[in-house]
Amino acid sequence: MKLKFFLFALLGIIATAQAQNTGSVSGKITEKSNNAPISYATVSLKENGKVVSGVNTDDNGDFSFKNISLKNYTIEIQYIGFKKYIGSVILSENRKTATVNVALEEEATQLKGVNIVAERSTIEQKIDRKVITVGKDLTTAGASASDIMSNIPSVNVDQDGKLSLRGNDNVRVLIDGRPSNIDPAQLLKQIPSTSIKKIELITNPSAKYNPEGMSGIINIVLHKSANTGFNGSYSGGITFGETAKYNQSLDLNYKTGKVNFFGNGGQNFGTYYNKGRILRLDQDVEQNLKISNENDNYLYKLGMDYLINDKNTLSFYTNQNKSTGNGNVITNIDYNNGDPDILNIYQNSLYKGPTKTGTYNLAYKHIFKKEGHTLDFEGNYSDTKSNQNASFDTNTTRPDNTSNSIIYSDQIGDQRKLSTINVDYVNPLNDKTTLEAGAEARITRTNNDYNTGNPLVPVDERVSNYTYDTDIYSAYVTFGQKFKKFSYQLGTRFESYKVQANLNHGQDKFNDDYITLYPSAYLTYNLNEKNVLQFSYSRRVDRPSIEQTKPIREFSTPLVTSYGNPELRPQFTNSVEVNYTKTLEKGSVTAGVYVRSINDQISRTLSPDPNDPSGYKQILSYTNYDRNSAYGFDVSLNYKLTKWWDIQPSIDFSSIKQQGVVFEINKPTGTERSVTTTAFNARMNSNFKPTKRLSFLLFGFYRGPVEDVQQNRHEMYKMDIGSRYTLLDNKMNISVRFNDVFKTMKYAFDGIYPYPQTGQFSWESRTVYLGLTYNFGGGKIKNLQRKQREDNTNKGGGGMF
């Protein structure tokens, strides 16, 4: 008993002596500009340059060190976006406690506002992509993402809003690195241009990315904010054309402690007009179309990030999209050949129906002790429901003025469900070597119901059901090393793909099941600090979509009906690229050359309707062709001529060998035709800034003529002018843009298959856009962990890309 008492007493004496020979350091870290506390700032105590201890500030900006030896220390305080603080702390027998209260000063480059937007757009060539950072000059282009896409090098947008990259429309569109069930042409019209942070063109993706999209990937990265406190941004605009179109969006962000809440919403509504004229030259038949689409689109996003600790982050968000619209197509067909048996046709068709899409995403990120060592889990679920009610009122009139009328309606119901789960792992084995690996499961379920009251359709074909389901399981690994001037990355993706198509509950089935590899290779050589050369190879696939496969009416006019082909096979592409980047004193220039070999190319076909004895009606569908090839190049320059004038010219050229089956009137079988299609595009974006607040924009675009298997497309060109004024300490921007000043944008074509014809379509290309953007809120501090997660996501995950 006495021994125990002695030991306890001895331990107490030792502890008291140690406590008497140690001290403590505490304090509070705040923002100099508004005295707001800074949470999660890094505070380090150093002795002779070595870290003795380190802590992070709490939610109130407080920190403390206890039981610190009585010595002289250097204290360092760091937080992203603020200048580093370095001071000294002296602990001695006479001063065993020290208080360090520091007000950190912002970096000079830190800007206020939820969205930090540069004056002018920049183009940067990275190892596997070209990155266009969207500046105010591009957001002035128009209300939506679709409006600014034609300003992007190598990207084209047709009159229907469909995208193509390097002359090929087999391109995959992602939003923040994730797929969407929404048709890209429709989705881009719903995203406000002011919500876009950057656009990434991944023309030759590595094995890390999902291999869909023959010509590559266009990834649209939206603004995200993790600023402390409450921040927001509002933008609105009006487009003046034949009628006014309106758009508005609101971005909100609130961060407190370990939780960051964010949300944004956007709306576009208005009526859009299009008209066309097609002449059949051998029979003197004229077809006139007037098209109007009254659209009302909503898109909003809500989410949160929870910083569990410095190493673990949990995030959730949901995207909700709703689109309602009325489409009206008036078709007037005049037969001017004097045949008394021929009918003139007038058809008024109306398409109505809402489309709703809900997306839900849950992500977890773990950061290991080693820098760059990360593990990501992500789950994504998307559900799209679309209903279309179409009514057709068709009147036919003979030369003797006798007529008859057919009125009927169609109903189409679509539902698509996409579930994705993926994991990504990145491990820098050393400062020169990086290993990446990941796996993904992607399940898609689609259901399409069709019901028509068309009396000309056989009764047993008026009701149909079509399902198209895919199961994709994949895994990838990449290995890369960096040396002084040379770096490389090798990788491969293993994939199991299964598709099941079913028409009318088993009446007609189509199955495809295969396992394949998608290898990739990147080689980069730095000639010097300002010249970089890159070589890359990848294997890609373009899988048929449900629209391309369902044997159900997609759209119909009195002369053309569109159907899918359920027996379409995937299209595989081997692609080789060489890219060059040169950094100039006042800008940069990027150039690239590519060659592609394509197997089982998916192409459009236009053939006579076998059920039409008159020979006037046609079927528009799809088929596969054996082999194809393509090559091309692009060059873009970003250069500042003076302090107030910069230019961004770009050109791209592509040559694609096409094979297809063409039909001629009165011939029952088709003829295989091969052509070499060339496409040339040029753009010039020029910005003038006479004062700090006022700037002007001049944009020119030219697309050369194109010959393809079915028809020849004529050249297109236009010029836009715009201006922007900044006020309220750069928090507000007012912009105006006059698009297609000389009203030269038209889609014109001619051809001889299946009969000689010529035509032209025009739309509201000449418009005036007036927009306003306002940023509010005082937060300026960005959370490091969210930034790390965002950067990793944007670089691409194994599954979501």
Please give a structural write-up.
The structure is a single chain. With 801 residues, this protein is mainly β. The chain is 6% helix and 63% strand. The protein is built from six helices and 42 strands. The chain has a 28-stranded mixed β-sheet that branches. A five-stranded mixed β-sheet has the order 8-9-13-14-12, with no helix packed on it. The protein has a four-stranded antiparallel β-sheet with strand order 3-2-5-6, with no helix packed on it. It is elongated and about 115 Å long. The model is unreliable at 1-19, 108-116 and 779-801 (pLDDT under 50).
Classify the helix fraction into a percent range: under 10%
Rounded mean pLDDT score: 81
Helical stretch tally: 6
**Describe the biggest sheet?**
28 strands, mixed
Oligomeric grouping of the chains: single chain
Beta-strand residue percentage: over 45%
Radius of gyration: 31 Å
Short summary of the structure?
With 801 residues, the protein is mainly beta. 6% of the residues lie in helices and 63% in strands. Strand 8 and strand 9 form a beta hairpin.
